[in-house]
Amino acid sequence: MEQKSSRLLQKLSRLRREHKELINLMPLQTGGMLTEAAKEALIEFGDGYSVCDFCEGTLCNVINPPIRDFVHELLPQFLGCEVATITHGAREAKFMVMHSLAKPGDSILVDANRHYTTVVAAERTGLNIIEVPNSGHPEFRVDVSEYVPLMEKHAPKLILLTYPDGNYGNLPDARRLGEIAQGHNIPYIINGAYAVGRMPISMDEIGADFIIGSGHKSMASTGPAGVLGMKKKWEETVLRRSGKYGKKEIELLGCTIRGVPLITLMASFPYVKERVQHWDEQVSKAQWFSAELEKLGFIQLGEKPHRHDLLHFDAPVLYEISKRVRERGYFLYKELKERGIWGPQPGMAKSFKLSTFAADRQQLESVIDSFKAILNKYS
Amino acid sequence: MEQKSSRLLQKLSRLRREHKELINLMPLQTGGMLTEAAKEALIEFGDGYSVCDFCEGTLCNVINPPIRDFVHELLPQFLGCEVATITHGAREAKFMVMHSLAKPGDSILVDANRHYTTVVAAERTGLNIIEVPNSGHPEFRVDVSEYVPLMEKHAPKLILLTYPDGNYGNLPDARRLGEIAQGHNIPYIINGAYAVGRMPISMDEIGADFIIGSGHKSMASTGPAGVLGMKKKWEETVLRRSGKYGKKEIELLGCTIRGVPLITLMASFPYVKERVQHWDEQVSKAQWFSAELEKLGFIQLGEKPHRHDLLHFDAPVLYEISKRVRERGYFLYKELKERGIWGPQPGMAKSFKLSTFAADRQQLESVIDSFKAILNKYS
For residue B210, which of B184, B238, B183, B229 has the smallest C-alpha distance? Predict the structure, then answer.
């Protein structure tokens, strides 16, 4: 027992990351890689509670570092909303909104491609979850007009659309759902965890009531960090204050990311604001890469032509290999890692997900060549 | 508008902390200063979601980095509990427990010295808050026997004790309250945000049902980070899983600190585990420092002899000065900063709070000399 503890303690004193120098195609990670400014800020504000040096009671109103300007000026502009705040992440933002607007037993209508945390946040609130189906294999499209009959049948307190979803990178017609939601007077949440910080998006143009983004997924921030934008009319509901402590917002428990995640979110923001302007280049890069992988016998799932860097492929040819090698599904992870590439979930071979967001064309060419070499090796 | 935005963006690209090289006496910060191992880990795992490279569905079960060992082996030993998990911080842990064990309209009994977030977490859950009073100025002691009549009158679903409180650094008789809670069969939460990681503490020895700690306040971690320990019998209630996603705990929304705060918590842990063994030195240092400041005319509030590094002083002599200087209450902050010292909340002079935890005796001597010099300057 003593010996085991001391071995474990030793491991903790030197934590190293295996995947550091590799070409990163991991869908969860490609939008969350830090800028140099964020890395510097990480050390500068690493010590616990150092963002709170000049707090006068409300994190989002701190002037030094300039949190107030970031939250109250820059974020609303960026999100196309009237009021913004910061959260621990997209899932915590979803829970905040659900917990503020709905009661246990109420219903929420979500798309079938929703992230698992949408379901868990609804469970934590005690909501009935009704799903708008997708079109199934291979495109898994969500047709937003299918919200209408379900809205009329279940009278949900909230509707949510995942834009894009994390499984297929599909971009449903969010704007049309905005019109539908307004017509039915039902508050509408856009979960833009893979949109905000990658591509141009505006809550106002979509006609949603809430927009949610993820710092660690798509805003070049360390985790956990998120942003939540809303219409002014929801401010008093979602950002309602404590009866006893007038500066403290109840759903934020006073304050949320009181540490480095907020600092990296801020330090990377100028770069993130700029990079969304180049989204068309990201889309054409993803389309080119997808076409190249399809030439190797992989089948891209989700919408075609694809409009996002999140890509999901069926890979029957890899699956056949995995059945006859010692490492089973792990062979793909191992073979790619040996070639300096990190992306598909270790153990997966039947189908795999990649994101082309952080790699340039030259790196992606080396990825394509690596897939070719792996297929040759085992054929 | 454009010009203002561009000025704000420029500020974000170079975030610097003013208080970096100073002697740190800030009560919120002295227990959260990073170890060298944690600083290295910060850079290593800075990129968003890099702790999740080898996730198989549950953050607390990740093997590389060794989160599973940390959460399921080391933390329960350290906290003296059967089951542990990680949270965004102490306030989020309190909300998790309240939200799991109580319903809107239920009552919770807390000490009058509780942190404001205890109140806000209870408000978020919809609970009635009943407070056990303290003895008032100057000691503000909480006598735990006063829980008994209030427990009998209000039949609370939960009781909570702040150990120590953040205002006076008082350590009430937590163990006796453990006996009382068990006798009445009411679940008992110890909020040890200023204990866990500073001083030896064991949930089991206290006889509590839950123990809560704060990474950024007392475990040499960046924020936000917290720990929650509990009796095994509460695991299925507080860590209940999603009906749809069997690996995902509902109150954690699947997972909590998916990023560097967890990594710094782990990297600093061997040091933190060691430092609590030297708590007696911390207490004698605090007592000596308090006695020296009292010689200057400040009056230490809270328990005497004091048993914690959190110190609160009434300072009538500083208040008199603040009334006749241009900077008003800010003169103390300014004078100390010029002397390389950071601690009392800017603007406060009538009374101030300090923590002696991170400074050594030599540094504290220079603090005492600085107070003397400031008093001389204005006398």
Answer: B229
Q: A335, A374 in Cβ contact below 8 A?
A: yes
**B160 phi, psi to nearest 5 deg:** -135, 140
Looking at residue B240, the DSSP 8-state letter turns out to be P
CA-to-CA dists, residue A74 to A258, B80, B351, angstroms: 19, 46, 37
* Segments of B192-293 assigned E as strands: 210-214, 226-230
Contact B291, B281 (CB under 8 A): no
Average predicted confidence (pLDDT) for chain A: 96
**Contact flag B46-A46 (C-beta cutoff 8 Å):** no
Distance from CA of B100 to the nearest CA of A (A): 9
Angstrom distance (rounded) from CA B362 to CA B346: 24
- The answer, for B198 touching chain A at a CB cutoff of 8 Å, is no
Strand B83-87, strand A188-191: pairing: unpaired
B217 to A77: CB separation less than 8 angstroms, yes or no:
no
Rounded distance, CA A132 to CA A331, Å? 36
Residue type, B65: P
- Above 80 in pLDDT, residue B108? yes
Q: Give the model confidence (pLDDT) of A126-161 as tens digits.
A: 999 999 999 999 999 999 999 999 999 999 999 999
B-chain residues near A261 (CB < 8 A)? 224, 259-261
**CA A369 to chain CA centroid, nearest Å:** 29
Q: Which residues sit opposite B310 in a β-bridge?
A: B355
How many other CB atoms are there within 10 angstroms of residue A376's CB atom?
Answer: 8
Q: Which of B13, B39, B44 sits opposite A270 (nearest CB)?
A: B13
Looking at the complex, report in whole angstroms how far the Cα of residue B344 sits from the nearest Cα belonging to chain A: 10
Looking at residue A1, what is its pLDDT? 64
Query: Is A103 in CB contact (< 8 Å) with chain B?
Result: no
3-class DSSP state for residue B298? coil
Tell me how far apart the alpha carbons of residues B318 and B348 are, in angstroms, rounded to a whole number. Answer: 10
Residue A32: which of B47, B116, B223 has the nearest Cβ? Answer: B47
The owner of tokens 């110190």 is B311
What residues contact B102, with CB distance under 8 A and at least 6 apart? B108, B125, B127, B157, B158
Using the Cβ of B26 and the Cβ atoms of chain A, whether some distance falls under 8 Å is answered with yes
Q: Nearest 10 degrees: CA dihedral of A90, A94, A95, A99?
A: 150
The 3-state secondary structure of B159-192, one letter per residue: EEEECCCCCCCCCCCHHHHHHHHHHHCCCEEEEC
Helices (H), B63-209: 67-69, 75-79, 90-101, 116-125, 147-154, 174-184, 203-206
- Average pLDDT of chain B is 96
Cα torsion at A252, A255, A256, A261 (round to 10°)? 160
Contacting residues of B for A40, CB less than 8 Å apart: 15
B251 touches chain A (CB under 8 A): yes
- Say if A254 is an interface residue toward chain B (CB within 8 Å): yes
Contacts of A360 (CB under 8 A, 6+ apart): none
Rounded Cα gap, residues B159 and A225, in angstroms:
32
Q: With a CB-CB cutoff of 8 Å, which residues 110-169 of chain B face chain A?
A: 116-117, 119-121, 123-124
Residue B8: how many other CB atoms lie within 10 Å: 17
Q: How many beta-carbon pairs under 8 angstroms link A with B?
A: 286
- Cα separation, A217 vs A285, in Å, equals 19
Q: Do B17 and A225 touch (CB under 8 A)?
A: no
* A8 shares contact with chain B (CB less than 8 Å): yes
Q: For the whole model, what pTM was predicted?
A: 0.97
Give the rounded percent of residues in chain B with a pLDDT score beyond 90: 95
Q: Is the pLDDT of residue B1 over 80?
A: no
Could you read off the pLDDT of A157-208 as tens digits, one per residue?
A: 999 999 999 999 999 999 999 999 999 999 999 999 999 999 999 999 999 9
